[in-house]
């Protein structure tokens, strides 16, 4: 139990640390940050449940006002900003990413983790992000989808990095990739 809590806290801190990499804010108010890589890694390394819990812990800290998002942002106001859909989608993205890595064991881990990051960390996250931007920016879903295209290349690069890092960790220290080393229901 204590190990799980430590892993969850460590990965929440990883997401916060990735916020130190300078953000690039786009004209419509949603920044490009490295923190979505942290969300992907939560899923690929910790697995579905622990990964989602790490992201939820991070978002709780942001909601109470800690300036942990890229650019030193924090507070409840972020959950009604153009970024709100992405933030709300982060725990679900980590869960889906982790679930895929836990269940798909027949292919090389680098490939599985990269594809899981694309499905969970990009597609799932974009669904929430597009809906959130549509609501907060008062745009149609088609217009909001067009805005999201600015993120695609960077997010695919992050998904590949997540796959490579997860595979490297598994080779260096197999027990560190909890999504593969323990039963999926062990939390």
TrEMBL record:
UniProt superkingdom: Bacteria
Task: Give the transmembrane ranges.
Answer: 51-69, 76-101, 107-135, 147-170
Q: Does the keyword DNA damage apply?
A: no
Q: Which Gene3D superfamilies match?
A: 1.10.1760.20
Localized where?
Cell membrane
Keyword annotations: Cell membrane, Membrane, Transmembrane, Transmembrane helix, Transport
Output the InterPro entries linked to this UniProt entry. Answer: BioY (IPR003784)
Please verify whether the record's keywords include Cytoplasm.
no
Q: Which Pfam families match?
A: BioY
Q: Membrane topology for this entry?
A: Multi-pass membrane protein
Tell me the protein family, please.
Belongs to the BioY family.
Name of the featured protein = Biotin transporter
Q: Which organism is it from?
A: Ruegeria sediminis
């Amino acid at each position: 139990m204590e190990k799980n809590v430590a892993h969850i806290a460590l990965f929440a801190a990883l997401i916060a640390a990735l916020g130190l990499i300078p953000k690039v804010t786009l004209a419509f108010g949603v920044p490009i940050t490295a923190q979505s890589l942290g969300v992907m890694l939560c899923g690929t390394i910790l697995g579905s449940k622990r990964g989602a819990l790490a992201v939820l812990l991070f978002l709780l800290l942001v909601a109470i006002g800690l300036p942990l998002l890229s650019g030193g942002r924090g507070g409840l106001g972020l959950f009604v900003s153009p970024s709100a859909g992405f933030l709300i989608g982060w725990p679900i993205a980590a869960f889906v990413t982790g679930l895929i890595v836990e269940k798909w064991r027949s292919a090389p881990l680098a490939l599985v983790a990269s594809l899981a990051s694309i499905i969970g960390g990009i597609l799932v996250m974009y669904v929430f992000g597009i809906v959130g931007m549509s609501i907060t920016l008062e745009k149609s879903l088609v217009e909001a989808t067009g805005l999201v295209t600015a993120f695609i290349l960077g997010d695919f690069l992050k998904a590949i990095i997540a796959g490579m890092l997860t595979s490297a960790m598994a080779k260096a220290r197999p027990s560190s990739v909890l999504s593969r080393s323990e039963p999926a229901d062990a939390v």
